[in-house]
Amino acid sequence: MKPTKEQSLWMYETMVVSRRFEEAIEKIYLEGKTPAFNMASGPIPGEMHLSNGQEPVAVGVCAHLDANDIVTATHRPHHQAIAKGVDLKKMAAEIFGKSTGLSGGRGGHMHLIDPAVNFSCSGIIGESCGPACGAALSRKMQNKPGVAVAFLGEGAANQGAFHEALNLAGAWNLPVVFVIEDNSWGISVPKSEVTAVARNDVRAAGYDMPGHYIPGNDPYAIFNIAGEAIARAREGKGPTLIEVETYRLAGHFMGDAEQYRPKGEKEALFAKDPIPKMRERLIAEGHAAESLDMLEKRAEARVAEAISFARDSEYAPETDALTAVFV
Amino acid sequence: MLDQPTNERRLTIARAMAEAMQQEMQRDPTVFVMGEDIGGFGGIFGNTRGLFEEFGKERVRDTPISETGFISAAVGAAMDGMRPVVELMFVDFFGVCFDAIYNQMAKNTYFSGGNASVPMVLMTSTGGGYSDAGQHSQCLYGTFAHLPGMKVVSPSNAYDAKGLMTAAIRDDNPVVYMFHKGLQGMGWLGTEAGATVNTPEEEYTVEIGKAKVVRKGTDVTLVGLAMGVHNALKAADKLAEDGISAEVVDLVSLVPLDRETVINSVAKTGRLIVVDEDYHSYGVSGEIIATVTEHDISKLKASPARVTFPDVPIPYARHMEQFCLPNPDKIVAAYRKM
Ligand SMILES: Cc1ncc(C[n+]2csc(CCOP(=O)(O)OP(=O)(O)O)c2C)c(N)n1
Ligand SMILES: [Mg+2]
Fold first, then answer.
1. Structure confidence by residue, pLDDT tens digits, B200-219
2. Does pLDDT of B2 surpass 50?
3. What share of chain A has pLDDT > 90, as a percent?
4. Which domain holds residue A306?
5. Is there an atom of ligand 1 within 6 Å of A154 CB?
6. Is residue B146 annotated as a catalytic residue, yes or no?
7. Which chain B residues are Cβ-neighbours of A109 within 8 angstroms?
8. Shortest CB distance from A46 goes to which of B96, B131, B310?
9. Residue A151: which CATH number?
């Protein structure tokens, strides 16, 4: 399966939006946190997990989804949310803790929920898997179209919830696709030290579903395999497990000194940055550099607009903390 | 703080915890540590720093993100002669592994009629105040203390942190060791300076099940644990400016609970305010108030009060979270209303 011209430009532009968004967040996050780094201070407090480098997974998968399909995501959710079409302004405002945010500032960066595009995420590792199964089951029971995609990290594939959910999906033949973003690290712990298998795609066999491993952080390869898996799910043929090799260009969270990384790893990863690589490929395919420049400018403008919206928005009254526990 | 030998060595809670583990590991080859990022990284909250370098990866074991697996593995190892110290990185994650904790760790001694023991420590971080939102900021003291079969402690300072950790490792029962992130001495968490105190280098224990009167007073008793103690001490300073003398009780341990120290203090002051960063209802604050009123309600000159976290998930936005958290001003206001 190959992306159409439109699809590949969408993938590229969305990767750029995501990267520019993370770069903007990174900069603002540090406001008020120097010279002493205190997580609680500045316009964006709390933990911050950036997705720089992992954009190909989000766009290669979400290129096949529309707003009606379901995505459940992780503690590192920005690229996934952006690719799924979560409102960028509301998302930025949420990260600033403003009243105009997705939850009015209650949830924050790890808890982005946008029912308008069927997107949710959780800060609890492995917890994207079960809800995706449930949403897929719900579509089956209601006889409604739509597939569910659960994103997770390679670290999360060691969590019981992952294995239980895969078994459910296999046993009930659910229209769900599990997508593991293998950035080879769970905070400071390398995949190889704590995982019984080298690649998680082999685990699919235990749950009677196809498994794929995609090397190289390549948006085209991801588009291809994810497209087949999602089409398969739409046709009622059941779940698929996909593991994608990807790169975490940032620390685990902002403030991470990353001393656990082997020397030279970061530099090697930056040399493989998927965004310039895709740009080169698009140019090789005959796209004019100027038209790509335009897409990049448009992406930057979207991010700038979302960030100003967030900055200019008001905080909700503090007493709003006490509302919305129940509907 | 009272009851502390004077010396010049001030440690953070993080270093005090690590030192206790280090000394126990040197003393007893059955002690080992496992959890996520507790190896070379030294623990997300710094409390295992240096252990990996000294003891290696066999005894300082980075685990997969498989809390059910490795916490129940600790139960099995503990019942087979080892003394595991296992870390649940944030207490909020108990949701994925609670069976290992409360159905196995906490009950196997009873199910064996006392013939089997489960000598393990489950250490876990608690507390908010730095906008980490609803899945990374809870205390859940009451949730753990409610369930029989496990001891539950939470230090407010490094001296107690070290002595409690040593006592917990030596205890033949499971001990849940809850350390508050805001007291850890990690600058990035906006640490409370009062938690970093003189801590002896030599090994010692702090008794599990004994509360401490950390400030003497006559007009009102402020009861708290962990961060609550520091809020209470600051409130006591403010009250003192108006000539009101507050006594502050640091519970130190929730299970066993030293009811006597609380009762004796309230018998003297006649007024009780409980400070608890955990949710308001069904928790430590209700238990302390019940302890006092059940014992002798006539000792109270006013209805008891509590300064707690309202019964809502912990909000992300800083102003909302701060609005919900206990603080010294809220304690003073509670006193004024008595
Ligand atoms: C149940 C649970 N355990 C532990 C954590 C702490 N934690 C947050 S992110 C993380 C590493 C996750 O690794 P991975 O799944 O590979 O995702 P990545 O961070 O690499 O994107 C851990 C251990 C958590 N949030 N939830
Ligand atoms: Mg990872």
1. 999 999 999 999 999 999 99
2. no
3. 99
4. 5-315
5. yes
6. no
7. 133, 316
8. B131
9. 3.40.50.970
Write down the mean pLDDT value for chain B.
97
pLDDT of B1 above 50: no
Position B57 scores a pLDDT of 97
- Is the pLDDT at B235 greater than 80? The verdict is yes
- Write the CATH number of the domain with boundaries B10-198: 3.40.50.970
Residue A179, domain member (yes or no):
yes
Residue A230 included in any domain: yes
Q: Calculate mean pLDDT across residues B143-155.
A: 98
Is A113 a member of any domain? yes
What is the number of structural domains in chain A?
1
Neighbours of A206 (CB within 10 A): 13
Domain boundaries, chain B: 10-198, 212-336
Is residue A279 a part of any domain in this protein?
yes
Pick from A72, A75, A80 the residue to mutate for probing ligand 1's pocket: most ligand atoms within 8 Å of its CB.
A75
Q: Over pLDDT 70: what percentage of chain B?
A: 98
Six token digits for residue A208: 């009677």
Q: Does B111 touch chain A (CB under 8 A)?
A: no
For residue B93 and ligand 1, the question of a CB distance below 6 A is answered with yes
- pLDDT for position B8: 77
CB contact under 8 A, B93 and A39: no
Q: What pLDDT score does B42 carry?
A: 97
Tokens for B298? 């006539």
Report the top-level CATH class of B212-336. Answer: alpha beta
Q: What is the pLDDT of residues B288-322, one digit of tens each?
A: 999 999 999 999 999 999 999 999 999 999 999 99
Residue nearest to ligand 1 atom 11, measured at CA: A186
Across A29-43, A173-187, B104-118, least confident range: A29-43
CA distance B109 to chain A (A): 26
Q: How far apart are CA A168 and CA A23, in angstroms?
A: 38
Q: Examine the pLDDT at A241 and tell me if it is beyond 60.
A: yes
With beta carbons less than 8 A apart as the criterion, state whether B44 and B73 touch.
Answer: no
Would the CATH topology of B10-198 be identical to that of B212-336? Answer: yes
pLDDT of residue B286: 98
